[in-house]
Design brief:
By secondary structure, the chain is mainly alpha-helical. It is built from 12 helices and 6 strands.
């Protein structure tokens, strides 16, 4: 967000006063409104170049956590990130290119999930907020979220099906995304608040006890806390532990 603000003011797409007001929106937690103001002001071709520089740097390399995720043998890895670190880790692991699917390809995701038993060793990557390959379709601002919620019903159906039929483990995720919260609220209400929990892994004290309780009761999200150390190796340890306890497949 700060990069966009600096660029917009430097190129005089927004005035200094507008920059101050956008800063105030960010301070108030109105991130989507601030992003909408910036996206509306910055020309699309310049935003495309910024996306490329920010999310496709030449020195970016996947970390151990990206690699370890594939050892879980899950049918689908869902990410809100625009970068290609998961795809790069996939190429290292399987010596082939990953299929890059976004919210616009919900029908393809459905087909892959239905045929998962045929591709047990090849999880699919579902980039629900879009990809740096297509910055114009990235979910970034308030208007983008509204269009995602109301103009992509197939995407919402797939996301709902995943949370209804599977246990979801959330890593590196703040649970602040509007559409996921709405999907989980709907599921909890439809199932009369009896749905089995999904899990989110967060550093200790990242959320207070009242908020964790509300997440469990309102969204069906159980919090797993850990004591973080530099680089968060605890997340890799958790994923490796889970992978080592997978049932053997014939």
């Amino acid at each position: 967000m700060k990069e966009l603000q600096e660029l917009a003011e430097e190129k005089e797409f927004i005035s200094h006063d507008e920059r101050i007001q956008i800063d105030e929106l960010v301070t108030q937690g109105k991130f989507l409104m601030a992003a909408q103001a910036l996206r509306s002001a910055i020309p699309p071709d310049l935003l495309d170049r910024l996306f490329h520089d920010r999310f496709q740097p030449s020195d970016a390399r996947p970390g151990q956590l990206h690699r370890s995720l594939f050892h879980l043998k899950v049918p689908l890895i869902i990410t809100t990130n625009y970068d290609f670190l998961l795809e790069d880790a996939y190429a290292e692991e399987y010596r082939r290119s990953a299929q890059n699917l976004t919210y616009k390809e919900a029908a393809v995701v459905q087909s892959l999930l239905q045929r998962h038993q045929q591709f047990q060793d090849r999880p699919s990557i579902f980039k629900i907020h879009g990809s740096a390959h297509t910055p114009g379709e990235a979910i970034l601002s308030e208007l983008d979220y509204r269009q995602l919620l109301y103009r992509e019903p197939g995407y919402r159906m797939i996301l709902s099906a995943v949370f209804v039929m599977k246990v979801v483990l959330m890593l590196g995720f703040s649970f602040e995304d509007t559409e996921i919260r709405l999907v989980l609220e709907s599921i909890r209400d439809s199932l009369k608040y009896r749905s089995a929990p999904d899990y989110i892994v967060l550093p200790k004290n990242a959320r207070n006890s009242v908020e964790r309780k509300r997440w469990r009761q309102d969204f069906g999200i159980e919090t797993i806390e850990y004591e973080p150390s530099p680089g968060h190796p605890e997340l890799v340890q958790l994923v490796d532990f889970l992978a080592s306890h997978l049932p053997l497949t014939p």
